[in-house]
Fold these 2 entries.
Entry 1:
Amino acid sequence: MSQLKEAILSTTAKGDKAFIPYIMAGDGGLEKLQPTILKLQELGVTAIEVGIPFTDPVADGPTIERAGERALANGTTLRKVIETLTSFSEHIKVPLVAMTYLNPILAYGIEKFSEDAKLAGIKGIIIPDMPLEERDIVYTALKANDIALVQLVSLTSTPERIERLTKASEGFIYAVTVNGITGARSSFASKLEEHFKKIQEYSDTPVLAGFGISTPEHVKSFSDFSSGVIVGSKIVDSLVANDWATIEELVKASKVATVK
Amino acid sequence: MTTEVKGRFGRFGGQFVPETLMTALKELEEAYDKFKNDESFQQELRYYLKNYVGRETPLYFAERLTEACGGAKIYLKREDLNHTGAHKINNALGQALLAKRMGKKKIVAETGAGQHGVATATACALLNLECIVYMGAEDVKRQALNVFRMELLGTKVVAVEKGSATLKDAVNEALRHWVTNIDDTHYILGSALGPHPFPTIVRDFQRVIGDETRAQFLELENRLPNAIVACVGGGSNSIGMFYPFVQDTEVALYGVEAAGQGIETGKHAAAIQGGQTGVLHGAFMYLLQDENGFVTEAHSISAGLDYPGVGPEHCHLHETGRAIFDSVTDDQALEGVKMLCRTEGILPALESSHAVYYASQLAKTMSPDEILVICLSGRGDKDVHTISAALGGDLA
């Protein structure tokens, strides 16, 4: 079993829900990466999604896109993120999940990237512009380095696709909760619970909810029918504002059993 | 050269998009497969192409240009005479009719020079579809006339300020809009780019250019031309022109990319000449990028060629050697404008002027009993401010 899946299952075994914050590497400078990751793991997050900036982030909404533009402006690259993570990897206790568009990996070289990512503590990867049909390009190299390839399942995925995606997904299943791009939202479709049940039918891999989750109430409401949540834009905004209290509240909301 | 499994052209193409779009792409693929062989759909398309667009367009012997160049006999395929002034209407109308058959009521599109935006806005007005067009803020400035035309046609034009504020950023926003409004919206992609099935659909709606040209040559000259020259940005006019000739190996195909200020300066839009393979906007293709895989800005005096990638079928034609790709600078394209204006009384679009200039040089290397045809993809009225500024005028 992948270390990523193990970390999530050990959280849910305690009765808590998994909480994965998304951070944009290099937003505010790469020197912020180490203190941010260490502080998040102190707060008790299950894993950390480390976003790699890209020039054309079509799956991302304005908050993460702007964070990416700031990171690019100060010279952040996939290579530099891997180097920085490697420099303090012995302090990283939670699994890291890289989130990067495909082209920076192709430019890096798939084999070399996978080897280096492993040394940097990366246990999972999300490639938002690479659907299941195209995954052969990267799969062997990732597998050889124990990096779980997380698949996204969307509201528009047909039942037949949901089955294939959930069976193929490693680490966890990333269930996209809205049609659209990343970013905070006030409401979600009413049929979500049913959608999540359908996803969980095909696999014992934990299902996590992501896109648009921005309040402790959202985190709690997804607890009823998922194994946890991924919170992106709200974390990115809070980190820019150095508002750790908000982040702490969000993490706490996932600890349904151990924090009352 | 036909579309293979998963929409590949050799190793190029594919479907590199977020999962949310996959179902829509499959739905589009199925709908397209159904309607492309549907006689009533084809009849409707032919009706509008003939009576509304004004096809077929003339294949015109450019006698004075031929004399000025002193070599091969030069013909012009007059796509500039289409309704809305460029070849873009062929695809916009085809896809709008397809969207209507699919039951989609809303259309989103991107535009660079504004020609595809105007064509889409036009087709949407004709077919009573709601239309929103994303356009890079830089292009909104460069192509104010086309912005106004789209608005007159009832389309909402959204200026994209992000990134380089040009065509690629407009594609990003159009894709985001499509992902968010997938239930009732069809995306009319304007070039032979993007995820499968778009490169195939766009090519099929543009191949009317090459099909007509082929038939016209057989009638006028009783033979096929020796060489075909077309400009390549994303590559829709060129693939439409080339495709019906791909099996005719005696016909040389020349794709002309925009060299901007010169490929050696880095300020260009020549993805095949000066890029490496990579993935952007759903397809594996030649792409302008840095060593980190970040997409770099394209530069061209012509907004319609100002895109960092190139259609996957062109990439394949390049790799197999079936087509020859070369490039022409901004200054040379301006020479092309002047040349065609003065010899033939035709003001070509800056995009097409790249092909005009290249052909004028190529013709000189050919003999008078050989034939060359230029795909004159659009007219240049939209470019007069840019041309005036580049020639030191103060029209702008």
Note: The mean pLDDT of chain A is 94.
Entry 2:
Amino acid sequence: MISANLSAIFYLISGVLFILALRGLSSPETSRQGNLFGVAGMIIAITVTFLSIGNFSIGFVVVLIFLLVGGLIGAFIAYKIPMTAMPELVAGFHSLVGLAAVFVAIAAFLNPEAFNLGTPGKIKLGSLIEMSIGAAVGAITFSGSIIAFLKLQGIMSGSPITFKGQHLLNGLILISIIILIYLLCSTQSSNLFWILLAVSFLIGFLLIIPIGGADMPVVISMLNSYSGWAAAGIGFTLENTALIITGALVGSSGAILSYIMCKGMNRSFFNVILGGFGATEQSSSSQNKEQRPVKSGNADDAAFLMKNASSVIIVPGYGMAVAQAQHALREMVDTLKKNDIKVSYAIHPVAGRMPGHMNVLLAEANVPYDEVFELEEINNDFANADVAFVIGANDVTNPVAKTDPESPIYGMPVLDVEKCKSVLFVKRSLSPGYAGIDNDLFYQENTLMLFADAKKMTEDITKNL
Amino acid sequence: MEIDPFIFRLSIFILSIFVGYYVVWSVTPSLHTPLMSVTNAISSVIIVGAIIAGLAGNSNTIFNISSIFGFLAIGLAAINIFGGFLVTQRMLAMYKKKKKNK
């Protein structure tokens, strides 16, 4: 048994360690150490909790069993998960944080004595407000993440699901959540608590279904942020500093990532959340472009072009993840490097399905991180490069974003791929990308389309080099 | 008049948001995926609340409804803690610098 003051100090230490864990991520060298700070913070928080309760009876054994079983499942998932499935994994993990927050809120509501919050039916007002906000946000995180997970996993269609009056319905539900919290706090009725949870689950579901696959980076970051706010809400209820600090850190982290992702698409946050991107734009641009001539080539042509280049820039996108082509790509690059060709990688902020998705895949394929560049760092280099090799990316290379104010993606920052001497575009077909618009790059004089599966094409090029 | 302890917690909360804001902006974009998995792991410190709920009952009533929710939350949070930190470690181990630098 340790005193409340002492345990509060330890919780503060673990909060500081969590800050250091995030701080470590400012560079890959310090990041591994940062992760260990995070682990240390977690061990301190859990140990102190056990010591401050000081109940080592049979209940303690049950707690340890749940801890171990959960831990084993988590460790198993962490080792088995392929890197291409990271977005699904993160969405799945967010849903667990959300559900855990809901369960803790339920436990606190049913047994407030255990948390020094009063007695059932007479919970302290402040605690009840914090608890119900934590529970509601947790429930939204849970059901929202489940939908995001299903969409990323392909179990549910990635296309936006919209219906008439959707925004009105969502607005009404959000207002009803606020009213429910108000009523709950004035009546302390447990029925209202359950209704609040049910409605929050429902709104989480409704908020995410209209958002399409390529907007997932924003959604995942947003849910990341929600899971933080839910934790902070519960932290206020439990009067626990570690939880409050962590909740605030995670909340702002997710919010910043959402902002970066929105900026990468030149869209406002509300525009993404309200969903249905590009759905109305297709009709105007589909007729006249069908007949434009396209140069297509095979692996042999591509190998010839690259062999005679002195610098090559690779532009990976979600298609590379789908085709699992990152290893084949690295092998191709190795062969190029043997021929003294300078190779670098250009990553668009919203390439892939989550922030940093492409970087992880390239790292997995043993691509050194100092060959991988962000949009601002590398965009000027395209003009001097001989070959741009676009693999699985589409909309993020579309020059229309710079030239056509009518285009739905106008103003979005894009990679200046068209400035390269020649462009190799690996793609299955000419179909438009997610934004539903044609890519002018396909029809350029210096573009050679390579119609094939990304992985197979890359392997074939390597053979021909 | 004494200051409500809530105000102190609120101060910590607000200041932590600012700390988080500046720390996260300094995270290099190539590590944004590990950032998400590690924030996910640390937000599972919510397990603290779950443990309190789970250990609330005495030996006769280990399994009342409240502590059962506590136990379930412990299991969920534990998946996240172990899964989150380990997968982050696994990802970070892959980030390597160029070996042969002339």
Note: The mean pLDDT of chain B is 88.
